[in-house]
Amino acid sequence: MHTVLKMAVQRVVPKGAVYLFENYTDPVDGLSACCTCEIAAHLAKYRKPADVKICWQAKMSGWQEQLIRGKAFHSGNDAVAVGAPDFLKRLGIQSCAVAPVLIGKSWAGFVACGDVSPARPWSEQDMSLLRAIAEVIGTMLARKTMQNQLLQSQKLEMLGKLSSGLAHDFN
Question: Nearest-5° angle of CA 126, CA 83, CA 40?
Answer without folding.
Answer: 45
